[in-house]
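Posting this for the archive.
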Amino acid sequence: MLKHLHIRNYALIDKIDIDFERGLNILTGETGAGKSILIGAIGLLLGERASSDTVRQDTGKAVVEAAFGIEKNKLITSLLEENQIDWMEPLIVRREVTTGGQSRGFINDTPANVKTMKALGELLVDLHGQHEHQSLLRINMHAKLLDDFGGLTGIVADYKKSYKKLHGLFEKLRDLQQREQSLKEKKDLYTFQINEIDKVDPQPDEETSLETDLNILENAETLYEQTQQLYELLYENERSVYETLVIARNRLESLADIDPSFEEFKKECTSAEAIVNEIAKFLQGYNSRIEFDPERLEQLRDRLGQLSLLKKKYGGSIESIIEHRKNIGEELELAENFQDSIDALKNEIKSARSELSTIAERLSSKRRDTAKKISKMIGNELSTLGIPNANFEVQITTKPDTMGELNEENAFVKLGKEFYPAYHNGIDKVEFYISTNLGEPPKPLAKVASGGEISRIMLAMKSVLAKSERLPLLIFDEIDVGVSGRIAHAVGKSLNNLSAYHQIIAITHLPQIAGLADCHYVVEKIEDEKHTATRVRKLTTGERVREVARLLSGEEITEAGIAGAKELIKSE
Protein backbone atom coordinates (compact mmCIF):
# COMPACT_ATOMS: atom_id res chain seq x y z
CA MET A 1 0.00 0.00 0.00
CA LEU A 2 0.99 3.63 -0.49
CA LYS A 3 1.81 4.98 2.96
CA HIS A 4 3.17 8.43 2.21
CA LEU A 5 3.42 10.69 -0.84
CA HIS A 6 5.79 13.67 -0.97
CA ILE A 7 5.66 16.10 -3.91
CA ARG A 8 7.81 19.23 -4.26
CA ASN A 9 7.97 21.84 -7.03
CA TYR A 10 5.77 19.81 -9.37
CA ALA A 11 3.42 21.85 -11.61
CA LEU A 12 1.24 23.94 -9.24
CA ILE A 13 2.40 22.03 -6.19
CA ASP A 14 4.89 23.86 -3.99
CA LYS A 15 5.13 21.13 -1.36
CA ILE A 16 2.67 18.43 -0.36
CA ASP A 17 2.94 15.55 2.09
CA ILE A 18 0.04 13.08 2.25
CA ASP A 19 -0.37 10.06 4.51
CA PHE A 20 -2.75 7.55 2.94
CA GLU A 21 -4.70 4.88 4.82
CA ARG A 22 -5.84 1.36 4.05
CA GLY A 23 -9.22 0.91 2.40
CA LEU A 24 -10.98 3.53 0.27
CA ASN A 25 -9.19 6.89 0.02
CA ILE A 26 -11.31 9.55 -1.74
CA LEU A 27 -10.02 12.82 -3.21
CA THR A 28 -12.43 15.60 -4.08
CA GLY A 29 -12.02 19.24 -5.05
CA GLU A 30 -13.14 21.84 -7.51
CA THR A 31 -12.33 21.51 -11.20
CA GLY A 32 -8.82 22.82 -11.84
CA ALA A 33 -7.73 22.49 -8.22
CA GLY A 34 -4.99 20.04 -9.18
CA LYS A 35 -6.37 16.54 -8.72
CA SER A 36 -5.00 15.41 -12.09
CA ILE A 37 -1.62 16.84 -11.09
CA LEU A 38 -1.48 14.32 -8.25
CA ILE A 39 -2.16 11.50 -10.70
CA GLY A 40 0.55 12.82 -13.02
CA ALA A 41 3.04 12.93 -10.16
CA ILE A 42 2.28 9.33 -9.21
CA GLY A 43 2.59 8.36 -12.87
CA LEU A 44 6.11 9.80 -12.82
CA LEU A 45 7.03 7.31 -10.09
CA LEU A 46 5.66 4.51 -12.26
CA GLY A 47 8.16 5.26 -15.00
CA GLU A 48 6.10 7.56 -17.22
CA ARG A 49 7.91 10.09 -19.36
CA ALA A 50 9.34 13.11 -17.51
CA SER A 51 9.00 16.65 -18.86
CA SER A 52 10.68 19.88 -17.80
CA ASP A 53 7.25 21.54 -18.18
CA THR A 54 6.17 19.88 -14.93
CA VAL A 55 8.91 21.63 -12.91
CA ARG A 56 7.42 24.52 -10.93
CA GLN A 57 8.52 27.90 -12.21
CA ASP A 58 11.59 29.46 -10.58
CA THR A 59 12.71 26.21 -8.95
CA GLY A 60 15.63 23.94 -9.80
CA LYS A 61 13.91 20.58 -9.90
CA ALA A 62 10.71 18.72 -9.15
CA VAL A 63 10.75 15.80 -6.71
CA VAL A 64 8.15 13.07 -6.25
CA GLU A 65 8.74 10.46 -3.55
CA ALA A 66 6.54 7.70 -2.19
CA ALA A 67 6.82 5.18 0.64
CA PHE A 68 5.14 1.82 -0.05
CA GLY A 69 4.45 -0.97 2.40
CA ILE A 70 5.35 -4.16 0.52
CA GLU A 71 5.25 -6.76 3.33
CA LYS A 72 7.83 -9.09 1.75
CA ASN A 73 6.03 -9.25 -1.61
CA LYS A 74 7.89 -12.07 -3.40
CA LEU A 75 7.70 -10.52 -6.88
CA ILE A 76 8.96 -7.17 -5.63
CA THR A 77 11.70 -8.81 -3.57
CA SER A 78 12.82 -10.75 -6.65
CA LEU A 79 12.88 -7.57 -8.78
CA LEU A 80 14.99 -5.78 -6.16
CA GLU A 81 17.44 -8.69 -6.01
CA GLU A 82 17.76 -8.82 -9.80
CA ASN A 83 18.68 -5.14 -9.85
CA GLN A 84 20.96 -5.32 -6.78
CA ILE A 85 18.73 -3.02 -4.75
CA ASP A 86 18.57 -3.50 -0.99
CA TRP A 87 15.20 -4.52 0.45
CA MET A 88 13.70 -1.96 2.82
CA GLU A 89 10.37 -1.56 4.57
CA PRO A 90 8.85 0.75 3.59
CA LEU A 91 10.01 0.77 -0.02
CA ILE A 92 11.08 4.28 -1.05
CA VAL A 93 10.64 5.30 -4.70
CA ARG A 94 11.81 8.74 -5.86
CA ARG A 95 11.93 10.59 -9.17
CA GLU A 96 13.59 13.94 -9.82
CA VAL A 97 13.13 16.15 -12.89
CA THR A 98 15.27 19.23 -13.59
CA THR A 99 14.35 22.36 -15.52
CA GLY A 100 16.64 21.08 -18.27
CA GLY A 101 14.44 18.02 -18.69
CA GLN A 102 16.88 15.58 -17.10
CA SER A 103 15.33 12.84 -15.00
CA ARG A 104 16.75 10.59 -12.28
CA GLY A 105 15.07 7.70 -10.52
CA PHE A 106 15.88 6.03 -7.22
CA ILE A 107 14.59 2.91 -5.46
CA ASN A 108 15.64 2.69 -1.82
CA ASP A 109 18.23 5.40 -2.58
CA THR A 110 19.78 3.23 -5.30
CA PRO A 111 19.79 4.81 -8.80
CA ALA A 112 17.28 3.07 -11.08
CA ASN A 113 16.56 3.51 -14.79
CA VAL A 114 13.10 4.07 -16.23
CA LYS A 115 12.76 0.43 -17.29
CA THR A 116 13.29 -0.78 -13.73
CA MET A 117 10.91 1.84 -12.33
CA LYS A 118 8.24 0.77 -14.81
CA ALA A 119 8.70 -2.88 -13.87
CA LEU A 120 8.40 -2.01 -10.18
CA GLY A 121 5.41 0.27 -10.85
CA GLU A 122 3.55 -2.61 -12.51
CA LEU A 123 3.91 -4.60 -9.29
CA LEU A 124 2.87 -1.73 -7.02
CA VAL A 125 0.12 0.29 -8.68
CA ASP A 126 -2.70 -0.06 -11.19
CA LEU A 127 -3.67 3.41 -12.31
CA HIS A 128 -6.95 3.93 -14.17
CA GLY A 129 -7.41 7.34 -15.70
CA GLN A 130 -6.60 9.55 -18.63
CA HIS A 131 -3.05 8.19 -18.71
CA GLU A 132 -3.65 4.46 -18.56
CA HIS A 133 -1.39 2.23 -16.53
CA GLN A 134 -3.84 -0.62 -16.59
CA SER A 135 -2.99 -4.28 -16.27
CA LEU A 136 -6.43 -5.26 -17.56
CA LEU A 137 -5.84 -3.48 -20.87
CA ARG A 138 -2.57 -5.34 -21.47
CA ILE A 139 -3.41 -8.49 -23.44
CA ASN A 140 -0.32 -10.26 -22.15
CA MET A 141 -1.81 -10.02 -18.63
CA HIS A 142 -5.16 -11.63 -19.48
CA ALA A 143 -4.00 -15.24 -19.17
CA LYS A 144 -2.41 -14.49 -15.79
CA LEU A 145 -5.60 -12.85 -14.50
CA LEU A 146 -7.64 -15.81 -15.70
CA ASP A 147 -5.23 -18.27 -14.05
CA ASP A 148 -5.20 -16.33 -10.78
CA PHE A 149 -8.99 -16.25 -10.62
CA GLY A 150 -9.28 -19.97 -11.40
CA GLY A 151 -6.61 -20.97 -8.88
CA LEU A 152 -4.52 -22.42 -11.70
CA THR A 153 -1.16 -21.04 -10.59
CA GLY A 154 0.02 -24.50 -9.51
CA ILE A 155 -0.69 -26.04 -12.92
CA VAL A 156 0.88 -23.01 -14.61
CA ALA A 157 4.03 -23.45 -12.51
CA ASP A 158 4.19 -27.14 -13.53
CA TYR A 159 3.73 -26.15 -17.17
CA LYS A 160 6.47 -23.51 -17.02
CA LYS A 161 8.88 -25.96 -15.40
CA SER A 162 8.15 -28.59 -18.09
CA TYR A 163 8.30 -25.94 -20.85
CA LYS A 164 11.68 -24.74 -19.63
CA LYS A 165 12.98 -28.31 -19.56
CA LEU A 166 11.80 -29.02 -23.12
CA HIS A 167 13.04 -25.68 -24.38
CA GLY A 168 16.45 -26.47 -22.88
CA LEU A 169 16.53 -29.86 -24.63
CA PHE A 170 15.77 -28.25 -28.00
CA GLU A 171 18.56 -25.74 -27.37
CA LYS A 172 20.88 -28.64 -26.57
CA LEU A 173 19.83 -30.48 -29.73
CA ARG A 174 20.40 -27.44 -31.93
CA ASP A 175 23.77 -26.88 -30.31
CA LEU A 176 24.70 -30.54 -30.83
CA GLN A 177 23.69 -30.45 -34.50
CA GLN A 178 25.65 -27.27 -35.09
CA ARG A 179 28.66 -28.78 -33.34
CA GLU A 180 28.36 -31.94 -35.42
CA GLN A 181 29.03 -30.05 -38.64
CA SER A 182 31.75 -27.99 -37.03
CA LEU A 183 33.45 -31.05 -35.58
CA LYS A 184 33.28 -32.90 -38.89
CA GLU A 185 35.23 -30.03 -40.40
CA LYS A 186 37.75 -30.09 -37.53
CA LYS A 187 38.08 -33.87 -37.19
CA ASP A 188 41.32 -34.12 -39.23
CA LEU A 189 42.82 -31.17 -37.38
CA TYR A 190 41.96 -32.61 -33.97
CA THR A 191 43.34 -36.03 -34.97
CA PHE A 192 46.63 -34.41 -36.03
CA GLN A 193 46.86 -32.38 -32.82
CA ILE A 194 46.13 -35.42 -30.63
CA ASN A 195 48.84 -37.44 -32.40
CA GLU A 196 51.26 -34.56 -32.08
CA ILE A 197 50.63 -34.12 -28.35
CA ASP A 198 50.53 -37.86 -27.60
CA LYS A 199 53.85 -38.36 -29.38
CA VAL A 200 55.50 -35.99 -26.89
CA ASP A 201 53.21 -37.06 -24.00
CA PRO A 202 53.85 -34.07 -21.69
CA GLN A 203 53.43 -34.72 -17.96
CA PRO A 204 52.42 -32.31 -15.20
CA ASP A 205 55.39 -30.50 -13.57
CA GLU A 206 57.76 -32.29 -15.95
CA GLU A 207 59.30 -29.12 -17.28
CA THR A 208 60.63 -27.96 -13.91
CA SER A 209 62.33 -31.30 -13.32
CA LEU A 210 63.87 -31.29 -16.80
CA GLU A 211 65.20 -27.76 -16.42
CA THR A 212 66.79 -28.67 -13.06
CA ASP A 213 68.49 -31.75 -14.55
CA LEU A 214 69.68 -29.73 -17.57
CA ASN A 215 71.13 -27.03 -15.36
CA ILE A 216 73.05 -29.64 -13.36
CA LEU A 217 74.46 -31.38 -16.44
CA GLU A 218 75.42 -28.12 -18.14
CA ASN A 219 77.37 -27.13 -15.00
CA ALA A 220 78.80 -30.57 -14.16
CA GLU A 221 82.45 -29.43 -14.44
CA THR A 222 81.88 -26.46 -12.16
CA LEU A 223 80.00 -28.62 -9.66
CA TYR A 224 82.84 -31.21 -9.67
CA GLU A 225 85.59 -28.67 -9.11
CA GLN A 226 83.74 -26.67 -6.47
CA THR A 227 82.62 -29.68 -4.41
CA GLN A 228 86.13 -31.17 -4.52
CA GLN A 229 87.71 -27.90 -3.35
CA LEU A 230 85.09 -27.43 -0.67
CA TYR A 231 85.61 -31.02 0.62
CA GLU A 232 89.33 -30.46 0.88
CA LEU A 233 88.83 -27.13 2.65
CA LEU A 234 86.48 -28.60 5.24
CA TYR A 235 87.98 -32.07 5.77
CA GLU A 236 90.84 -33.28 3.61
CA ASN A 237 93.61 -30.65 4.00
CA GLU A 238 96.15 -30.76 6.83
CA ARG A 239 94.76 -27.53 8.20
CA SER A 240 91.12 -28.25 7.30
CA VAL A 241 88.22 -26.79 9.19
CA TYR A 242 87.51 -30.21 10.70
CA GLU A 243 91.08 -30.63 12.01
CA THR A 244 91.05 -27.10 13.43
CA LEU A 245 87.77 -27.79 15.26
CA VAL A 246 89.23 -31.03 16.72
CA ILE A 247 92.19 -29.04 18.13
CA ALA A 248 89.83 -26.35 19.49
CA ARG A 249 87.59 -28.96 21.12
CA ASN A 250 90.60 -30.63 22.87
CA ARG A 251 91.77 -27.32 24.29
CA LEU A 252 88.25 -26.44 25.51
CA GLU A 253 88.14 -29.83 27.30
CA SER A 254 91.35 -28.94 29.13
CA LEU A 255 89.97 -25.54 30.09
CA ALA A 256 86.69 -27.06 31.23
CA ASP A 257 88.59 -29.34 33.58
CA ILE A 258 89.92 -26.17 35.25
CA ASP A 259 86.81 -23.96 34.93
CA PRO A 260 83.35 -25.55 34.31
CA SER A 261 82.13 -22.39 32.54
CA PHE A 262 83.95 -23.68 29.42
CA GLU A 263 81.85 -26.85 29.37
CA GLU A 264 78.99 -25.34 27.30
CA PHE A 265 81.39 -24.01 24.64
CA LYS A 266 83.16 -27.38 24.45
CA LYS A 267 79.76 -28.91 23.56
CA GLU A 268 79.11 -26.23 20.92
CA CYS A 269 82.46 -26.96 19.35
CA THR A 270 81.71 -30.68 19.34
CA SER A 271 78.38 -29.93 17.52
CA ALA A 272 80.22 -27.80 14.94
CA GLU A 273 82.70 -30.63 14.41
CA ALA A 274 79.80 -33.04 13.72
CA ILE A 275 78.12 -30.59 11.30
CA VAL A 276 81.33 -30.09 9.30
CA ASN A 277 81.78 -33.86 9.19
CA GLU A 278 78.24 -34.31 7.74
CA ILE A 279 78.81 -31.58 5.11
CA ALA A 280 82.10 -33.21 4.12
CA LYS A 281 80.44 -36.63 3.71
CA PHE A 282 77.67 -35.08 1.51
CA LEU A 283 80.27 -33.26 -0.66
CA GLN A 284 82.31 -36.42 -1.09
CA GLY A 285 79.27 -38.48 -2.09
CA TYR A 286 77.89 -35.77 -4.40
CA ASN A 287 81.25 -35.35 -6.10
CA SER A 288 81.54 -39.09 -6.73
CA ARG A 289 78.13 -39.18 -8.46
CA ILE A 290 78.73 -36.33 -10.91
CA GLU A 291 78.46 -37.55 -14.51
CA PHE A 292 79.75 -35.94 -17.66
CA ASP A 293 77.05 -37.33 -20.07
CA PRO A 294 76.82 -35.42 -23.39
CA GLU A 295 74.20 -37.85 -24.70
CA ARG A 296 71.89 -37.29 -21.69
CA LEU A 297 72.48 -33.53 -22.02
CA GLU A 298 71.32 -33.63 -25.64
CA GLN A 299 68.24 -35.70 -24.70
CA LEU A 300 67.19 -33.11 -22.11
CA ARG A 301 67.65 -30.25 -24.58
CA ASP A 302 65.61 -32.11 -27.21
CA ARG A 303 62.81 -32.88 -24.73
CA LEU A 304 62.58 -29.29 -23.56
CA GLY A 305 62.56 -28.15 -27.17
CA GLN A 306 59.61 -30.44 -27.95
CA LEU A 307 57.69 -29.13 -24.93
CA SER A 308 58.49 -25.52 -25.87
CA LEU A 309 57.08 -26.08 -29.37
CA LEU A 310 53.86 -27.55 -27.97
CA LYS A 311 53.57 -24.67 -25.50
CA LYS A 312 53.76 -22.12 -28.33
CA LYS A 313 51.00 -23.93 -30.21
CA TYR A 314 48.66 -24.88 -27.36
CA GLY A 315 48.47 -22.20 -24.72
CA GLY A 316 51.87 -21.40 -23.25
CA SER A 317 52.11 -23.98 -20.46
CA ILE A 318 52.24 -27.75 -19.91
CA GLU A 319 48.88 -27.53 -18.10
CA SER A 320 47.23 -25.81 -21.08
CA ILE A 321 48.60 -28.49 -23.44
CA ILE A 322 47.16 -31.28 -21.28
CA GLU A 323 43.80 -29.44 -20.97
CA HIS A 324 43.64 -28.87 -24.74
CA ARG A 325 44.37 -32.57 -25.34
CA LYS A 326 41.57 -33.54 -22.95
CA ASN A 327 39.05 -31.18 -24.63
CA ILE A 328 39.75 -32.13 -28.23
CA GLY A 329 39.78 -35.79 -27.21
CA GLU A 330 36.26 -35.43 -25.86
CA GLU A 331 35.18 -33.51 -28.97
CA LEU A 332 36.63 -36.15 -31.25
CA GLU A 333 34.94 -38.91 -29.27
CA LEU A 334 31.66 -36.98 -29.59
CA ALA A 335 32.17 -36.53 -33.34
CA GLU A 336 32.64 -40.28 -33.74
CA ASN A 337 29.48 -41.03 -31.71
CA PHE A 338 27.26 -38.11 -32.75
CA GLN A 339 24.31 -40.09 -33.98
CA ASP A 340 24.05 -42.00 -30.70
CA SER A 341 24.08 -38.69 -28.78
CA ILE A 342 21.47 -37.12 -31.06
CA ASP A 343 19.21 -40.17 -30.88
CA ALA A 344 19.43 -40.18 -27.06
CA LEU A 345 18.58 -36.48 -26.94
CA LYS A 346 15.61 -36.93 -29.28
CA ASN A 347 14.26 -39.62 -26.99
CA GLU A 348 14.55 -37.19 -24.07
CA ILE A 349 12.68 -34.59 -26.14
CA LYS A 350 9.93 -37.05 -26.99
CA SER A 351 9.44 -37.87 -23.31
CA ALA A 352 9.54 -34.20 -22.27
CA ARG A 353 7.09 -33.23 -25.04
CA SER A 354 4.66 -35.90 -23.85
CA GLU A 355 4.87 -34.57 -20.29
CA LEU A 356 4.37 -30.94 -21.43
CA SER A 357 1.47 -31.92 -23.71
CA THR A 358 -0.38 -33.60 -20.83
CA ILE A 359 -0.01 -30.52 -18.60
CA ALA A 360 -0.88 -28.10 -21.44
CA GLU A 361 -4.07 -29.96 -22.30
CA ARG A 362 -5.19 -30.01 -18.65
CA LEU A 363 -4.39 -26.29 -18.21
CA SER A 364 -6.27 -25.35 -21.39
CA SER A 365 -9.36 -27.29 -20.28
CA LYS A 366 -9.42 -25.65 -16.85
CA ARG A 367 -8.97 -22.21 -18.41
CA ARG A 368 -12.04 -22.71 -20.54
CA ASP A 369 -14.10 -23.70 -17.51
CA THR A 370 -12.83 -20.66 -15.60
CA ALA A 371 -13.54 -18.36 -18.56
CA LYS A 372 -17.24 -19.26 -18.49
CA LYS A 373 -17.49 -18.37 -14.81
CA ILE A 374 -15.68 -15.05 -15.18
CA SER A 375 -17.72 -14.00 -18.21
CA LYS A 376 -20.99 -14.48 -16.35
CA MET A 377 -19.83 -12.82 -13.11
CA ILE A 378 -18.40 -9.73 -14.82
CA GLY A 379 -21.55 -9.38 -16.93
CA ASN A 380 -23.64 -9.31 -13.75
CA GLU A 381 -21.32 -6.78 -12.11
CA LEU A 382 -21.47 -4.48 -15.14
CA SER A 383 -25.24 -4.55 -15.00
CA THR A 384 -25.07 -3.37 -11.39
CA LEU A 385 -22.73 -0.57 -12.44
CA GLY A 386 -25.11 0.79 -15.07
CA ILE A 387 -24.08 -1.10 -18.21
CA PRO A 388 -27.02 -3.52 -18.35
CA ASN A 389 -26.51 -4.84 -21.88
CA ALA A 390 -22.83 -5.63 -21.50
CA ASN A 391 -21.60 -8.89 -22.99
CA PHE A 392 -18.20 -9.82 -21.58
CA GLU A 393 -16.27 -12.76 -23.02
CA VAL A 394 -12.95 -14.42 -22.33
CA GLN A 395 -11.83 -15.69 -25.73
CA ILE A 396 -9.34 -18.54 -25.64
CA THR A 397 -7.66 -19.42 -28.92
CA THR A 398 -5.70 -22.62 -29.38
CA LYS A 399 -4.56 -23.04 -32.97
CA PRO A 400 -2.96 -26.23 -34.29
CA ASP A 401 -0.33 -26.10 -37.01
CA THR A 402 -2.29 -26.58 -40.23
CA MET A 403 0.43 -25.29 -42.58
CA GLY A 404 3.03 -27.91 -41.70
CA GLU A 405 5.35 -25.30 -40.25
CA LEU A 406 5.98 -27.38 -37.13
CA ASN A 407 7.40 -30.90 -37.07
CA GLU A 408 8.98 -33.41 -34.74
CA GLU A 409 12.19 -31.39 -34.73
CA ASN A 410 10.70 -28.16 -33.34
CA ALA A 411 7.06 -28.61 -32.23
CA PHE A 412 6.77 -28.09 -28.52
CA VAL A 413 3.39 -29.75 -27.93
CA LYS A 414 1.56 -32.62 -29.58
CA LEU A 415 -2.10 -33.40 -28.83
CA GLY A 416 -3.33 -36.43 -30.72
CA LYS A 417 -1.90 -36.06 -34.21
CA GLU A 418 -1.82 -32.25 -34.12
CA PHE A 419 1.12 -30.01 -33.29
CA TYR A 420 0.60 -26.78 -31.32
CA PRO A 421 2.99 -23.89 -30.77
CA ALA A 422 3.71 -23.58 -27.07
CA TYR A 423 4.15 -20.27 -25.29
CA HIS A 424 5.84 -19.65 -21.96
CA ASN A 425 2.48 -19.85 -20.12
CA GLY A 426 0.56 -22.45 -22.14
CA ILE A 427 -0.76 -23.23 -25.61
CA ASP A 428 -3.63 -20.73 -25.36
CA LYS A 429 -3.92 -17.12 -26.38
CA VAL A 430 -6.26 -15.44 -23.88
CA GLU A 431 -7.93 -12.09 -24.55
CA PHE A 432 -10.84 -10.23 -22.97
CA TYR A 433 -13.63 -9.08 -25.30
CA ILE A 434 -16.65 -6.91 -24.53
CA SER A 435 -19.75 -5.37 -26.08
CA THR A 436 -21.49 -2.61 -24.11
CA ASN A 437 -24.48 -2.16 -26.41
CA LEU A 438 -27.25 -4.61 -27.22
CA GLY A 439 -26.80 -6.38 -30.56
CA GLU A 440 -23.14 -5.44 -31.03
CA PRO A 441 -20.58 -8.27 -31.28
CA PRO A 442 -17.86 -8.27 -28.61
CA LYS A 443 -14.59 -6.57 -29.53
CA PRO A 444 -11.16 -6.57 -27.87
CA LEU A 445 -11.36 -4.81 -24.50
CA ALA A 446 -8.35 -2.64 -25.34
CA LYS A 447 -10.26 -1.07 -28.27
CA VAL A 448 -13.70 -0.56 -26.71
CA ALA A 449 -15.57 1.95 -24.55
CA SER A 450 -15.34 5.60 -23.53
CA GLY A 451 -13.25 6.89 -20.63
CA GLY A 452 -16.10 6.67 -18.14
CA GLU A 453 -17.25 3.32 -19.46
CA ILE A 454 -13.78 1.81 -19.36
CA SER A 455 -13.42 2.84 -15.72
CA ARG A 456 -16.60 0.97 -14.80
CA ILE A 457 -15.51 -2.04 -16.85
CA MET A 458 -12.23 -1.99 -14.98
CA LEU A 459 -14.08 -1.69 -11.68
CA ALA A 460 -16.34 -4.62 -12.52
CA MET A 461 -13.40 -6.80 -13.49
CA LYS A 462 -11.40 -5.77 -10.45
CA SER A 463 -14.37 -6.59 -8.23
CA VAL A 464 -14.63 -10.09 -9.69
CA LEU A 465 -10.89 -10.69 -9.74
CA ALA A 466 -10.19 -8.87 -6.46
CA LYS A 467 -9.37 -11.88 -4.33
CA SER A 468 -6.91 -13.26 -6.85
CA GLU A 469 -5.06 -10.21 -8.10
CA ARG A 470 -2.62 -8.88 -5.53
CA LEU A 471 -1.59 -5.45 -6.75
CA PRO A 472 -1.25 -3.43 -3.53
CA LEU A 473 -2.78 -0.19 -4.84
CA LEU A 474 -5.52 0.69 -7.33
CA ILE A 475 -5.99 4.31 -8.41
CA PHE A 476 -9.19 5.39 -10.19
CA ASP A 477 -9.37 8.77 -11.90
CA GLU A 478 -12.68 9.81 -13.51
CA ILE A 479 -14.38 6.70 -12.19
CA ASP A 480 -17.65 8.65 -12.06
CA VAL A 481 -17.75 10.03 -15.63
CA GLY A 482 -21.18 9.51 -17.14
CA VAL A 483 -22.85 8.11 -14.02
CA SER A 484 -25.19 9.57 -11.40
CA GLY A 485 -27.92 8.69 -8.93
CA ARG A 486 -28.43 4.99 -8.25
CA ILE A 487 -25.54 3.95 -10.48
CA ALA A 488 -23.20 6.36 -8.69
CA HIS A 489 -24.09 4.74 -5.38
CA ALA A 490 -23.51 1.30 -6.91
CA VAL A 491 -20.07 2.41 -8.12
CA GLY A 492 -19.29 3.67 -4.63
CA LYS A 493 -20.40 0.42 -3.00
CA SER A 494 -18.32 -1.56 -5.49
CA LEU A 495 -15.26 0.55 -4.69
CA ASN A 496 -15.92 0.14 -1.00
CA ASN A 497 -16.20 -3.65 -1.32
CA LEU A 498 -13.07 -3.78 -3.47
CA SER A 499 -11.12 -1.87 -0.82
CA ALA A 500 -11.33 -4.91 1.43
CA TYR A 501 -8.71 -6.52 -0.86
CA HIS A 502 -6.79 -3.51 -2.16
CA GLN A 503 -5.88 -0.03 -1.05
CA ILE A 504 -7.86 2.31 -3.33
CA ILE A 505 -7.35 5.97 -4.18
CA ALA A 506 -10.24 7.42 -6.18
CA ILE A 507 -10.88 10.92 -7.50
CA THR A 508 -14.56 11.74 -7.72
CA HIS A 509 -17.08 14.57 -8.08
CA LEU A 510 -20.00 12.48 -6.86
CA PRO A 511 -21.27 12.67 -3.27
CA GLN A 512 -22.62 9.10 -3.47
CA ILE A 513 -19.05 7.85 -3.90
CA ALA A 514 -17.35 10.35 -1.58
CA GLY A 515 -19.77 9.47 1.22
CA LEU A 516 -18.45 5.89 1.31
CA ALA A 517 -14.80 6.84 1.91
CA ASP A 518 -12.69 5.35 4.67
CA CYS A 519 -10.50 8.42 4.42
CA HIS A 520 -11.39 11.67 2.63
CA TYR A 521 -9.00 14.33 1.26
CA VAL A 522 -9.78 17.62 -0.43
CA VAL A 523 -7.59 19.16 -3.12
CA GLU A 524 -7.58 22.97 -3.05
CA LYS A 525 -6.04 25.77 -5.08
CA ILE A 526 -4.49 28.54 -2.98
CA GLU A 527 -3.74 31.93 -4.55
CA ASP A 528 -1.93 35.04 -3.33
CA GLU A 529 -0.60 38.10 -5.13
CA LYS A 530 2.42 36.25 -6.53
CA HIS A 531 1.69 32.53 -6.66
CA THR A 532 -0.93 29.86 -7.23
CA ALA A 533 -0.43 26.57 -5.44
CA THR A 534 -2.25 23.28 -4.90
CA ARG A 535 -2.58 21.71 -1.48
CA VAL A 536 -4.19 18.55 -0.12
CA ARG A 537 -5.88 18.27 3.27
CA LYS A 538 -7.15 15.22 5.13
CA LEU A 539 -10.66 16.00 6.34
CA THR A 540 -12.00 15.62 9.83
CA THR A 541 -15.45 14.09 10.31
CA GLY A 542 -17.11 17.52 10.40
CA GLU A 543 -15.15 18.78 7.37
CA ARG A 544 -16.05 15.62 5.54
CA VAL A 545 -19.77 16.20 6.05
CA ARG A 546 -19.46 19.74 4.67
CA GLU A 547 -17.42 18.57 1.66
CA VAL A 548 -19.99 15.91 0.74
CA ALA A 549 -22.72 18.51 1.25
CA ARG A 550 -20.87 20.84 -1.14
CA LEU A 551 -20.85 18.09 -3.74
CA LEU A 552 -24.61 17.72 -3.22
CA SER A 553 -25.73 21.34 -3.17
CA GLY A 554 -22.92 23.38 -4.73
CA GLU A 555 -20.94 26.24 -3.21
CA GLU A 556 -23.84 27.40 -1.01
CA ILE A 557 -24.14 24.56 1.45
CA THR A 558 -27.74 24.12 2.59
CA GLU A 559 -29.26 22.35 5.57
CA ALA A 560 -30.72 19.84 3.18
CA GLY A 561 -27.24 19.30 1.78
CA ILE A 562 -25.86 18.74 5.29
CA ALA A 563 -28.61 16.25 6.07
CA GLY A 564 -28.10 14.46 2.77
CA ALA A 565 -24.34 14.30 3.36
CA LYS A 566 -24.84 12.78 6.80
CA GLU A 567 -27.21 10.22 5.33
CA LEU A 568 -24.74 9.28 2.58
CA ILE A 569 -21.86 8.93 5.03
CA LYS A 570 -24.06 6.96 7.40
CA SER A 571 -25.05 4.61 4.57
CA GLU A 572 -21.51 3.27 4.34
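The first strand starts at residue 2 and ends at 10. Residues 1-130+477-538 form a domain with the Rossmann fold fold (CATH 3.40.50.300).
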